[in-house]
UniProtKB/TrEMBL annotation:
InterPro entries: NADH_UbQ_FeS_4_mit-like, NDUFS4-like_sf. One of its GO terms (cellular component) is membrane. Gene3D superfamilies: atu1810 like domain. This is ETC complex I subunit. Pfam families: NDUS4. It is found in: Membrane. Signal peptide: none annotated. Keywords: Electron transport, Membrane, Respiratory chain, Transit peptide, Transport. Its main location: membrane.
Amino acid sequence: MPTARIYQRPKNAMQSGKYRTDRWVLEFEPAEAKKPDPLTGWAGSGDTRDQVRLGFPTREAAIAYAEREGLAFTVIPAPERKLKLQAYADNFR
């Protein structure tokens, strides 16, 4: 039985905006370990579910999809967003 993770994307560290952080993602747990390819040396496996990421507008929609498809799943809570209130003048203290 496939196992899935449901989580909310964290904010990208390279950007100041919060684009797409309100979406929830369902992705499958790896079914087999990755092995190096003998010819190229790149890591890979025969598990194609590793390439699938489904996006949902709400957590409830992602859970409903997993239950409807008979997937075992774990919900990872969204990371707490911390505001760092800082003024420009604080740079010169």
